[in-house]
Amino acid sequence: MAQAREIDPRPWYLLSPALLAIALLVVVPMSFILVYSFYENIDLGLDAPAFQFGNWRELLTDGYYHDAIWKTFRLSAIVTVLAAVLGYVPAYFIANTRFRHKWLLLLLLILPFWVSFIIRTLSWIHIMGNQGAINGLLLWLGVIDEPLPMMFNEFAVIVGFIHVFLPYMILNVYVSLEGIDRNLEPAARTLGCTPWQAFLEVTLPLSLPGLAAGCLLVFVLTAGSYVTPLILGGPDDFLFGNLIYDAVLSELNWPMGATLSFALLVLLGVVVVVYSRFMRLNQLSKAFG
C-alpha cells in the first residue's frame, strides 16, 4: 500500500509573511467594510448596527448609481485606449533607441512620480483654464476672440487621467519590448517583410502581454479615482469614486459609503477575472514581472 506523500511545509513558512500581510491589510479591512455595509444610517454621522439590505437595495434600484457605474467604465475605457495608443510610441522609442544613456530617458519618465498627484492635476488649470497658457497664447495670436471652454468638463478629466496614468502604460510596454530578441525583426526583414510588416507580425504580438498589463492597470486606476474629476470636472463629470467620497465625507453616511466601496471592488474584480481569462493571467504576470 502506497504511503501518503508528505507535504513540505517550508514553502508555506516562506509565504507566511506575505500571506499575513495580505490578510491584515486586505482581507480583514474588506471584511469590516462588507459588514459595515449592512449597518443603518440613522442620522448625520450616526450609524446603528443592523443586518439590513437597505443600502444594497438602494444601490441596485437607484438609476443614479447605475449611471455612475456606466460613466465610470465608459470613461475608464476611453482613457485606457488613448493611453495605449499614446504610450506605445514612446515605449517603443525608449526600448529601441541607440542612445547610450537610456537610464536618463527612464528617469525622465518616472520623474513626474516625484511630484504630488494633486499638484500635477492642479497644473492643468494653469494650462487649459480661461487665463491659462493655451488660451493666453491663442488670444495673443488672434486665433480666437474669447477663451475656449477647456476646463471643468469631460475633456479636461480625460486629459488629467492620461497625464497621470500614461507613465504606467509606457513602463509596462517598455518592459515587454525590452525582453524581445533584437534579431527577430531584422530576421523578418531578410525574409521579405517590410519594416511595417515586421512590426505587425513580430514586435506587436510579442509586446501584447505588456500592453495588456498596462491597459488593465490604467483601467483599474482610472475607475477607482476621484481626485481628478473633483478638480478638473464639472458637476456632471463625477465617477463612482466621487459618490464614495461624497457618501463618506460629505453626507457622513458610512454604511452607504461601505456599500459603494465594496460594490466597486466586486465590479473591478470581475473585470480583472474576465480580462485575465481572455488575456491569460500568466502572460500578465510575466509582463508585470
Secondary structure blueprint with pairings:
Elements: H1 10-36, E1 40-43, E2 46-48, H2 54-61, H3 63-96, H4 102-110, H5 117-128, H6 133-141, H7 154-178, H8 184-190, H9 195-223, H10 227-232, H11 240-250, H12 254-279, H13 281-288
Antiparallel strand pairs: 1-2
Gist of the model:
Belongs to the binding-protein-dependent transport system permease family. CysTW subfamily. This protein is mainly alpha-helical.
Please give a structural write-up:
- By secondary structure, the protein is mostly helical.
- The chain has 2 domains: 74 residues, no CATH class; 180 residues, MetI-like fold.
- Strands 1-2 form a two-stranded antiparallel sheet.
- Strand 1 and strand 2 form a beta hairpin.
- The longest helix has 34 residues.
- The protein is globular and about 70 Å long.
- It starts with 9 loop residues before the first helix and ends with a helix.
- The C terminus is likely disordered.
Main CATH class of the largest domain? Mainly Alpha
Instruction: Calculate the mean pLDDT score and round it.
Output: 88
Please give the count of helices: 13
Task: Please identify which CATH superfamily of the largest domain we are dealing with.
Answer: MetI-like
Shape: globular
Q: Which class do the helix and strand fractions yield?
A: mainly alpha
Cα(first) to Cα(last) distance is 44 Å
User: From N to C, what is the helix and strand string?
Assistant: HEEHHHHHHHHHHHH
- Beta fraction: under 5%
The total domain count is 2
Radius of gyration, Cα only, in angstroms?
Answer: 24 Å
Total strand count, please?
2
Oligomer: single chain
Low-pLDDT sequence parts: 285-289
